[in-house]
Amino acid sequence: MRKVRAAAILAGLAVAVAACGNAPTTTPPTASESAPATGGAKTLQGVKLEVAAKWTGAEQKNFEQVLKAFSDKTGAQVTYASTGEDTGAYLGPRIQGNNPPDVAILPQPGLVQQYADQNALKPLNDAVIKEIDANYTPYWKELGSADGKVFGVLIKAAHKSLIWYRSQAFEDAGVQPPTNWDELIKASQTIADSGTPPLSLCGASGWTLTDLFENVYLSTAGPENYDKLSKHEIPWTDPTVTTALEKIQQLVGKQEFILDGTSGAMQTDFPACVTKVYGQDKAAMVIEADFVATEANQAGAKVGEEAKYVPFPKVGDTAPVILGGDVAVAMKDNPGAMALLQFLASAEGGAVWAKLPGYLSPNKNVSPDNYPDELTKQLGQTIISAGDTVRYDMSDLAPSAFGATDGKGEWKVLQDFVRNPNDIKGAQAALEAEAKKAWK
């Protein structure tokens, strides 16, 4: 959904981000110079497979190179169908018509349960599960499961635990990049005192506020409570939520910290908030994922020089690493589909993809050395270093009525909280009321 679907193509990598078209396109993979053929017997010679995913433009071409590597190894002929942005609208009629693609790439784990409930997915075979067990932490296996069966594997990630800053603004204020929350608040005050608003807040895009909350909550409450809250196994009135909102209040509760004040921030969407930092030099920082790099680059800032980032600072005991990402599932039960999923789940398949721009792997055995630039190597290393504490975007795990609807649910309540950050109890009560409706 929204931020997961944003083209997470890292800037400075000489990649153009193509807009997603409305009409699906079906094309065979093109030959690739950078995706090496892998040896072995052509065990799937003559087998034809169709893979459907949301990617278009550069992302599609890169994925087709991964499919080409699979074809070179197995002999299978693979065609790619672009679903466009609304994966459900594309897959629904095909499922109903009993003509689904062999493999589909879902933009959020919640769809795994939805399609499993419709009996539209095929459980992964032992070979694929063995690959998952070897390359992923148990958390990712659980996210691809429904009703005790494993249906999906996370194959592509977006890194959502970053704070981007304008280096000149930091130099002018004489501050260093923060390494923890207290340093972030102190640096924000110093930057504000220097005459520059520290934070460009994307308040009109509610999902950016859920990202902020999730990073603070994972850090202060820890992975176990994060899992419980994501399933609504503890209420939003829980003291752990109070703590997280109190921390966020320190940042959004001061008008001088926010560019154009609260009212202005509530009218600023993503990516306009990025442009205000890098294209217009109005603010010092923006809190968002790796795809900020693309927008910064388009605004004329070179990533690694004027546009820099720090990991989201520790607020509590856990250094937060939150990912969005795409889950591959089988919609037909055939050897070709399972072989492709096994390849995509493997370190071999991940290494082919990692050499191409705009990709991050959640596979712990894909070495960061595969990535084509220093920025991506650093991001990939943080995923590996975080180990079992890495978590998936919480709002993308929730029912869409709560975590993914503009003007409703968590998005609206957090926007209201930014407007009135002193009413923490009121915000918690509203979040809990919305959660009860959504999980009902």
Summarize the structure.
With 440 residues, the chain is of the alpha/beta class. The protein has 20 helices and twelve strands. Strand 5 and strand 6 form a beta hairpin.
Structure in words:
The protein has 2 domains: 224 residues, D-Maltodextrin-Binding Protein, domain 2; 201 residues, Periplasmic binding protein-like II (D-Maltodextrin-Binding Protein, domain 2), CATH 3.40.190.10. It is an alpha/beta fold and 440 residues long. The chain is globular and about 70 Å long. The chain starts with a helix and ends with a helix. Helix 2 links the parallel strand 2 and strand 3. It is built from 20 helices and 12 strands. Strands 1, 2, 3, 4, 7, 11 and 12 form a 7-stranded mixed sheet that branches. A 3-stranded antiparallel sheet has the order 9-8-10. The longest helix is centred in the middle third of the chain and has 25 residues. Helix 9 runs antiparallel to helix 10, helix 9 crosses helix 19 and helix 19 packs antiparallel against helix 20.
